[in-house]
Amino acid sequence: MMQQAKQSQCVSEEGPGGFNFYALAHGSGSRAVVADYGAHVVAWRDAEGRDLLYMSSQAIFAEGKAIRGGIPLVFPQFGKGELPSHGFARTSTWRYEGDAVDEKGCVSVTFALTSNEKTLAMWPHKFEAKLTVSLSESLTLTMVVKNVDDKPFSFNSAFHTYFAVTDISAASIDGLKGVEYIDCLKNRERFKEERRSVDCEAAMDRIYTQTPQKLVLFTGSDRTPLIIDKEGMSDSVVWNPWLEGATAFADMANEEYRRMFCVESGNVATAITLQPGESHTARQILREV
Ligand code: TA6
């Protein structure tokens, strides 16, 4: 255990877009990279160096543009609305707050985003948000939002996780049978999932509500499936743009829809309301079975 602790580390360097990238290395050989821009996990690799997250080959690293891939943070709005799509968290530069290695060798890095003139102009609520990324044999994201205003506010949030799959036709999700979902491609009509294993054979954009704490994602590879474990989040969005959607994205090669599958833990159908001084914690733990 001490050996692993010695091998675990966090190193930062400037990269595309002039953003700072924090490379986390764990003694097991797993790796992750987090940008201060959006507090965005841009990579997570297993001990063999295989990418577990999809990153578009045409992703744009520039202020004001969301990075297409990895784990964009959705806050304080999900989807389209009064704010830019999925809110301003993923296109804001977060403040590096420090990194640490614990006695078991788990390495973590923490970022903070506090309401400022720009956010207040879009969303008139004073908040403090912190995002901690922890890497061991698993990858854990913990986001704490605190209401530092003198009035309540409500928000939506999600970890918009782009999982890498060998081919979308071979991917599937277990754990959604019996769960109600909102189909965003069918006028947001509500349905009940009848399948034990949910696969994807066309464009898909569904908000599964009140989902189980754990889902299992089969990525079509020879690797063991991934467990998606969430706390403090009621919903799971399942999305693939298919060819027609990918073609519409300037930052995604058309055929790359086949190599990604979004499963997004979040508070999407139900917002979180915080009274002054209250905090909310959302946590997603990703690990191989
Ligand atoms: O999570 C699914 C979704 O809301 C889709 O409707 C699609 O818009 C996707 O997010 C990507 O959104 P973005 O703003 O990142 O292009």
Can you give a write-up of this model?
The protein has 3 helices and 21 strands. The protein has 289 residues and is mainly β. It has a 9-stranded antiparallel sheet, with no helix packed on it. Strands 5, 10, 11, 13, 14, 16, 19 and 20 form an 8-stranded antiparallel sheet that branches. A hairpin with a 4-residue loop joins strand 3 (31-35) and strand 4 (40-45). The radius of gyration is 18 Å and the shape is globular. The mean pLDDT is 96. The structure holds 6-O-phosphono-beta-D-tagatofuranose.
**What is the gyration radius calculated from CA atoms?**
18 Å
Strand order of the largest sheet: 6-7-8-9-21-18-17-12-15
Task: Give the rounded overall mean pLDDT.
Answer: 96
Low-confidence stretches: none
Q: What compounds sit in this structure? A: 6-O-phosphono-beta-D-tagatofuranose
Query: The biggest beta sheet, please?
Result: 9 strands, antiparallel
Total number of strands = 21
Distance between the termini: 21 Å
